[in-house]
Each structure stands twice: as C-alpha cells, then as structure tokens.
Give the backbone structure.
Amino acid sequence: EAGVAQSPRYKIIEKRQSVAFWCNPISGHATLYWYQQILGQGPKLLIQFQNNGVVDDSQLPKDRFSAERLKGVDSTLKIQPAKLEDSAVYLCASTNRPGADYGYTFGSGTRLTVV
Amino acid sequence: ILNVEQSPQSLHVQEGDSTNFTCSFPSSNFYALHWYRWETAKSPEALFVMTLNGDEKKKGRISATLNTKEGYSYLYIKGSQPEDSATYLCAPSTYGGSQGNLIFGKGTKLSVKP
C-alpha cells in the first residue's frame, strides 16, 4: 500500500511569514495526527483528527497554528505568522485503529526552518 | 502529561556489538507501548506495539520486553549492523484522554561503525 505522503519535504521561511504543510494519509485510515519534533526532543502531538472531526488539539498553539481535514482524507497544517521557535520537523501519521495494538504509519515529514 | 524517559541519549557501537536501550514511563493508566525506528530523512517505522505485562516481541535481530507494573521497556539489538543506525523512539499511550495519543520520549540515537 502507498505510504503517508507529505509535502513539501523542506521549507525555509522568514519569521512572521506564513507556511502550509500537506498530508495525504493511507487510504481508509480514519485517524490522522500531526506531530511537531523540535531538534533534541521527541515528537509532540499537535492535533488528532477522526475523519474530519478534531479529537484533540489541546497542544496546538491556536493563536498561530491551524489545521483542517475537510473531507476526512487529506489534511493541511498552517502556521501564520511563523516564529523562530517553530523550526522543527512536522510529521503526519495515520491509523485505522487508534489506541490499539497496531503501529501507526508516518510520513517522511516536512523540515521547517524559520530564519 | 506523561513523562517518558529514554536512555542513553546516544550510543556508538562497533558492528557486531549487541546493545540495549531503556524506556521508562509512568505505569498508571497504561494502555500500550510503541517502539519506532527513525532513520535520517526517512519516515519513523513501527517496530513493536506491546500491551501486556511481560510481553516480549522479536523482529529479526531486534527484540523488546515490557514491564507495565514498574513502567519500563527494553529494546535489544543483537549483532548491530551499520543499517541499524537510527534514532529509536518509544511512546506509551494511556487509557482515558484522547485514545491512541502517543507520548514520545526524546529517543536514543544509535550509530554503528563498520
């Protein structure tokens, strides 16, 4: 099966600019996650979708970050305006069995550098 | 919020050496423990998911054990090869809250020299 697709792979922007990342999960996977991995730290959950509904966005900085999954398939994560501390790898993952004894499938991530 | 500790932070071994890493997590409300391998510029790859106390799982030269009562898991690599070089992440999940929300440790970065 095709994996989780993410784009772009790399992005360099100046602070206060806007940026958007795209994720296309594995076909049929109802649950989609966005994680942020800052250098030297473990990935941190930003938002979890179940189909097109938000399950958990408690750690999403809502003053600058937004995410949507309008048709319950692909998803977009946006940052507006970006700060230096947003430099990180943004990972998308999907599963059809959240919380079960089954590993999640991750994309290759988008590496964002804010200068 | 769970506090997940992984040790060591980094490890340098010679090809053929065997090695092991530790993942510690709070044992309360434990549901499952995931291990992932993340090679540079690639996707994190699921290695194991364990749920039961005393679970042992094996995949080739890599194996893992789980102790849910004391809150730790070990990952073992037998006869390390250069292709094993990667960051190994553990992530427990808990009952309650957002089902399936994984809390990742910082990882153990393994470098295997030929």
